[in-house]
Amino acid sequence: MIDENRAMNTALDAITVCGVRWRMPDRVLMVGANEIEEFIRALGPPVRRRILAALRDRELNVNAIATELDISQSAAVAHVQALEKAGLVTTDLRPARRGVQKVCTSSVNSAVLVFQSPVDLPDQNRIVTEMPIGLFFDYEVHPTCGIASETGMIGFEDSADAFADPRRSSAQILWFGHGYVEYRMPIGHHPGRRIESLAVSVEICSEYPGHRMDWPSDITAWVNGVEIGTFTSPGDPGDRPGHLNPSWWTGSRTQYGFLKEWRCTRDGSYVDGVDVSPITVDALDLDARRTVTVRFGVKESARSRGGMNLFGRRFGNHPQDIRMTVEFADGS
Predict the structure, then answer these.
(1) How many domains, the chain?
(2) Is 226 helix (H, G, I), strand (E, B) or coil?
(3) What distance in Å separates the CA atoms of residue 47 and residue 69, rounded to the nearest whole number?
(4) Which of 287, 269, 127 is nearest to 194 (CA)?
(5) pTM of the model
């Protein structure tokens, strides 16, 4: 099965192919080298490509797909299951006049086949840590703000007191108008080992009361107190339910975010591979530390002060918490 973490509801800026710069659309499926054969197999039968075309701008249930493509219902079910396994289609069971119906939605607009990983380090040269979003050790938040777990709200909405509630450890989504949340993440003892890069990735978006796609927000990341870059979120998505959202979370709220990666290397700092800052990994003072502080926030002075939503592994579209990856030099 193709890794769901590679299906990104995010606007990648661009890629270069054969010397030509291509603008990337939203919702790009990144297909790794070991997944390409399965991906091509999933798209093999022409009828499956017709199903994707039918779902391009709308939702259809399985019966409607069968009728529109003039195939049997059992064939439609089998083809939808194959596309869902490949990460190209998502399905949702919804009430119907008689029982329930399976409603199908296209997951992506385009796919990028990655034939070779840009970094192929052995496991001993990489430390990957995930931190639940509720385990922040410091914060400053201003309304609109709130925290919710998989089962319900934590504390009261628009009250910063909720961020001090001990139940925040179970948080799966949190939001605020401006301010920050800060985490302390372990990297262990690494005497004599040269750190080549540090990356943090998280599902994130703007915060609007309810939701609004056109609501930009400048979201900044800091590592050990050093500002490494800002991502301008285009909005607060609510056009369809997040794949992982619990049933009690209503459609009038934020539904999903954008999976973003801040990476600091020896050459500078990047957001999704786009150069955003000259700050290098040496400026982060990592060598003598066993922990790293990671902060996400929206400055009060930000040009686009559109707030921030932060998603855990059981909310939004991507089953991960705050993920930090530290890479060491080979043989160090």
Answers:
(1) 2
(2) strand
(3) 8
(4) 287
(5) 0.65
